[in-house]
Design a protein that fits this description.
The chain is of the alpha/beta class and 259 residues long.
């Protein structure tokens, strides 16, 4: 079962979903800046996704996990980075009455082509085996050296939280929650009436293209680019990311309850 913690608030509920090798702690700085800018004391919920943090022993896959996540946390605006964004999309597809709004940072609805998905599944399995062989700390050294994370600022505290993850948990995450193992949601986007904000760093050309394509497919969506940022805008430019999200929240009405 996924682990979630909440701050007490009186207005909106904002649910924050982290990326692969992270924990809920990686959202704290940006999330509290969003709350301060809103000025309405929103309730903040932080989730450790399967295989990570307090949910390191959770073996739920991402397709089932989206529905479980929504049922666990309840109605609110879900804000997800990378893998967390994919969980948010899965939750919105499975439980449209629960997800009021959706903010996606560096996220994708999955891989459409079956052959490409199979290739990614094999790559993720190789990565999972690598974690099991060399351990979390050595794997993180390799993972964070990838070009995708070249613009991440030094973060000793964040790295310490990553290192608290387990090899078995991260390996599970890759094998059951990786992009190659997730059902593609591209064909489902046209049915999602929930308001969506797709964010990408201006240095992250791959996910900028994906975000723009998602916005074209979604009925009610906006795109925002964060200057001087790569893949993880909430870590690289937390103030700018918080400002963009807060402005969008103020201009966007929540999805009505269904059923």
């Amino acid at each position: 079962m996924m682990s979630a913690t909440s701050d007490i608030g009186f207005a909106d509920r904002l649910v924050f979903l982290h990326g692969f090798t992270q924990t809920h702690h990686h959202w704290h700085r940006c999330a509290h800046q969003i709350a301060e800018r809103m000025g309405t004391r929103p309730a903040l919920a932080f989730v450790d996704l399967p295989g990570h943090g307090l949910s390191s022993h959770d073996r739920t896959d991402i397709d089932a996990g989206g529905a479980q996540l929504a049922d666990l946390v309840g109605r609110g605006t879900y804000v997800g980075y990378s893998m967390g964004g994919r969980f948010g999309l899965s939750a919105a597809a499975a439980r449209p009455s629960i997800i009021e709004r959706l903010v996606l940072i560096g996220a994708t609805p999955g891989i459409e082509a079956l052959a490409e998905r199979a290739d990614r599944r094999r790559l993720d399995d190789e990565r999972a085996q690598r974690i099991e062989t060399i351990g979390v700390e050595a794997f993180l050294d390799e993972w964070l050296a990838a070009p995708l994370f070249a613009s991440l600022p030094p973060d000793d505290q964040g790295l310490a939280h990553r290192r608290r993850n387990t090899a078995s948990g991260l390996a599970h995450s890759l094998r059951t929650c990786g992009t190659g193992n997730q059902s593609s949601l591209w064909g489902h986007l046209g049915k999602m009436s929930v308001p969506v904000l797709a964010i990408a760093g201006d240095r992250d050309t791959k996910f900028t293209d994906i975000a723009r394509r998602m916005v074209e497919a979604l009925p009610n969506a906006n795109f925002a680019s964060i200057e001087d940022a790569g893949h993880a805008t909430h870590s690289e430019q937390p103030e700018a990311t918080a400002a963009v999200i807060t402005e969008w929240l103020a201009a966007t009405t929540t999805a009505p309850a269904v059923g």
